[in-house]
Amino acid sequence: MLDKIIELWHSCYNELYNLLEGEEQGTSAWMNLWSPLKWYPIQCDYAYMLSPKLFKEFVLPYLIEQCERLDHPLYHLDGIGQIVHLDDLLKIENLRGIQWVPGEGKPDVGSEIWISMYKKIISEEKNVVLSGMPFEKVSSFLNNFSTKESKRILIQTWTSDYFKALELLNKV
Hints:
This protein has one domain. The longest helix is centred in the N-terminal third of the chain and has 20 residues. Helix content is 41%, strand content 15%. By secondary structure, it is α/β, with parallel strands linked by helices. The chain contains eight helices and seven strands; from the N terminus they run αβββααβαβαβααβα. The strands form two sheets. Strands 3-4-5-6-7 form a five-stranded parallel β-sheet. Strands 1-2 form a two-stranded antiparallel ribbon.
């Protein structure tokens, strides 16, 4: 059944992509990122409850296949229960990055407890997407990374103060 689902998903994705290709340049999805080519955030939230053995058997082959069919796939690593699968995810050749979501009640994406995980992802030449980082943490957070490392980090944050936003952009 998983084989049928992945075929149907990509058939629909490609049909929609072909319909829009002449009208728009690039693609986007629920993660509010844009790519000039085919991209989508792949995920398996159920993997939170799977052992590494079951993940390798039932999930990983389909993630690899999705990565082969997309130009810029990112994996939505949703919750601390999925950290046990990170090494397997980082071995996927065409996976471009990891979006980390700690989960309800856990320290936010800007917390120092996640720095070693981010550095591990970056060391495998993958990008890190951090959604919802508190605005006031961005500048000090980036001090934990070299200039080269920070080029692999995409931070999504917000402020209603235009001048504070400009100040942060100039700083980083």
